[in-house]
Specification:
This protein is mainly beta. It has two helices and 33 strands.
Length: 469
């Protein structure tokens, strides 16, 4: 197999091998589940005790099992974790103590001109009426103005489209919107008048004057972050996609159950992604490789070689998170190999779970040329090119590794018969396509070689050799 350390690129796709499931997209809401707090709550109206959430003229509640968790919500567990918030989304009476309430949250970064998906969960309480108005508004600055009638008349960027919600359980509210750019704050609440709010009076409602609901697990994602990147897997492996959100995946028009992709054969697959209630949001490709095809497509760019320590030589491995590199049998922990001492180094390139792709041998040398060269090679004084398999060539013998050579052979009158720069040169007694006669021939050989001490030496040899057939 050819020697190389090259990351093969299939046209249009980077060869990245991932674990069996993709990483989750980043939620852009700070403290989405109200779990983080500055101070553990001990009473009503303490939403500001929860980190990154606030209110400016109302008194939403903060419930956390570390402290305030009264009996009237004790039977309702948080959707996740130990905390959630609660707010009054509707009130018929005009007194300030029962006005509507709004939650103001902060994003992890400003939005850009892109489509985003928002979801959050509400749990209506049984003692009040049911309503349809649950909305979200995004702004560049906090909505801190105090409205005269206690109602914020804001543009609903994401609005409940499911009508009146009367289920006494955690219900997901979601939608997509296009940001203008620069939005950094989120406001949750009811942004229309009482007359525009549809209501339903349950039979067991204690109060028909107001509506109160709990809020948990607020999440905001850019749509582009919900589409998996093009990727590559080996035949026999599978992929698991994000199913914590209302995402669905289709291959050739057929749904992938449970977000699982387990291909039957190698090839290029295009998977379409849809998000409820936003519809189709894009697609991505999966290249399924066989180990044999991967080894065939693995292209070389570095061969077995010798290097000089004095030159600070080093080798940078392309991707240590994809391939394994073993140096003299030891797994490399860094992506840079710089030999620290002279000697042979064998580098093994392998893909976990697949075939070994290549082996590279590197000889690290002390390249300072020494004056006193050791006698670790032998130049014969005679040879017999008669085809009997014994001493048929004029060549160099010995354990030293030849790095460079200039060899010339002349007849007794100075005519050039043979020359070579091949460290493994062999003269078979031919010149101009004809066998030369028996006799004495002169050679001049200049060579650079590595001694048994792994040092580099330079030497020039001149002498004569007898050709006897």
């Amino acid at each position: 197999m050819t020697s190389s350390i090259h990351l093969f690129l299939w046209p249009g796709l980077f060869l990245f091998f991932f674990p069996q499931n993709f990483l989750a997209a980043q939620n852009l809401i700070k403290n989405p589940g109200f779990e983080e707090y500055y101070t553990c709550p001990n009473d009503e109206g303490q939403l500001s005790y929860s980190k990154h959430w606030s209110t400016y003229f109302s008194t939403p509640d903060y419930f956390n099992k570390c402290g305030y968790y009264p009996e009237w919500v004790d039977t309702i567990p948080p959707r996740t974790g130990n905390a959630f918030a609660g707010a009054r989304w509707f009130a018929l009476a005009s007194s300030s103590d029962i006005r509507r309430e709004y939650l103001h949250g902060e994003l992890t970064r400003s939005l850009i001109e892109e489509v985003y998906y928002l979801e959050y969960y509400v749990h209506p309480m049984s003692y009040g009426i049911a309503i349809d108005q649950y909305s979200a508004h995004f702004s560049q600055t906090p909505i801190s103005d105090i409205p005269p009638d206690g109602t914020l008349y804001l543009e609903p960027h994401v609005q409940n489209q499911n009508g009146i919600i009367s289920d006494l359980e955690w219900v997901r509210l979601s939608g997509c919107f296009t940001a203008k750019g620069g939005e950094r704050y989120l406001t949750l609440g009811n942004f229309v008048s009482n007359a525009e709010t549809d209501t339903l009076n349950p039979v067991d409602a204690i109060s028909i004057q107001r509506h109160y609901a709990l809020i948990d697990d607020v999440a905001l994602y850019s749509l582009s972050s919900l589409i998996p990147s093009d990727t590559v897997i080996l035949e026999g492996e599978s992929l698991s996609f994000n199913t914590s959100l209302p995402l669905s995946y289709r291959l050739n028009g057929e749904a992938l159950p449970g977000g699982q992709f387990a291909p039957d054969s190698a090839g290029l697959y295009t998977i379409e992604v849809a998000l409820e209630p936003c519809g189709a949001i894009g697609s991505f490709q999966v290249e399924v490789y066989t180990c044999e095809a991967l080894g065939k497509d693995y292209e070389p760019f570095l061969s077995d070689t010798s290097v000089c320590l004095e030159e600070g030589w080093q080798l940078v491995f392309p991707r240590t998170d994809t391939y394994n590199y073993r140096i003299n049998g030891q797994l490399a922990t860094e992506n840079v190999f710089a030999p620290a001492d002279t000697g042979y180094y064998e580098i093994l390139v392998e893909l976990p779970g697949c075939i070994v792709l290549d082996t590279i041998r590197i000889l690290a040398l002390d390249c300072t040329i020494k004056d006193e060269a050791p006698d670790c090679f032998f130049i014969p004084s005679a040879f017999s090119p008669n085809g009997d398999g014994r001493n048929d060539y004029f060549r160099l013998y010995g354990p030293c590794q030849i790095q460079a050579v200039e060899a010339r052979i002349f007849d007794r009158w100075g005519g050039l018969l043979f020359e070579s720069t091949d460290p493994d040169f062999r003269w078979d007694g031919m010149a101009g396509g004809k066998a030369v006669s028996n006799g004495l021939y002169v050679y001049a050989i200049r060579l650079v070689f590595v001694g048994e001490d792994k040092r580099v030496y330079e030497r020039e040899e001149k002498g004569a050799v007898v050709l006897l057939r």
